[in-house]
Amino acid sequence: MSDDGGRSAKRPGRPRSASRDDVRAVAMALFEQQGYAATSLAQIARAVGVGRTTLFSYFPAKRDLMWGELDSRTERMRQSLAASTDLPPMEVIVAAILALSHYSAADRAAFTARWRIVDADDELRATVALRRAELSREILDGVHRRAPELDRERVGDVVHALMAIGERATSEWADAAEVSEGLDTYMARRLEPFVVVLRPLLG
């Protein structure tokens, strides 16, 4: 028997475990409360209750916390490009943009929170602009592989124009007082008149 009256010595508890989604949810709350730039990974780790090593194994850099959704949508866009071998060029472009915009009405609150965090931070806005340019280039490359006879510069102009309209539509959807449809549905309706006008440029 131990000399503590039969009670076993207290052993240190195991470190708390947390999923990537847990960490991201806590980080988003902190970003909303105090701003992205003012929030450190150390603060996030303390708030989650994990060590910095655990946090770094999930998210090596703070900006990685922001892009989980975009990464999954980017993969959806790539799948759309891979599956659109029989579509006309304009439909390839539109399908890719809509794949990037696959958010339901139920997703809007979380999406809008992220959107506002990004909009309030210069570094994040610059990163989004860079990623948007990379996505536009991927779409352009996808169209060019299917229709190499088209003027690449003209296709690029169409892609950039529709991506810009899509960005505006995304902002409108995020900022609306109330929505009853997903972003992709809203996006398709906003793109349609421009698609009609621009389609002759792609033959």
From TrEMBL:
Domain of life, per lineage? Bacteria
Please provide the record's keywords in A-Z order: DNA-binding, Transcription, Transcription regulation
Region Disordered, as annotated, extends over 1-21
Name the DNA-binding segment ranges: 40-59
Record bears the keyword Cytoplasm: no
What is an example of a Pfam family matching this protein?
A: TetR_N
Organism, by scientific name, is Microbacterium pullorum
Occurrences of domain HTH tetR-type (ranges): 17-77
Q: What is this protein called?
A: TetR family transcriptional regulator
Q: Which SUPFAM superfamilies match?
A: Homeodomain-like
* PROSITE patterns xref list: HTH_TETR_1, HTH_TETR_2
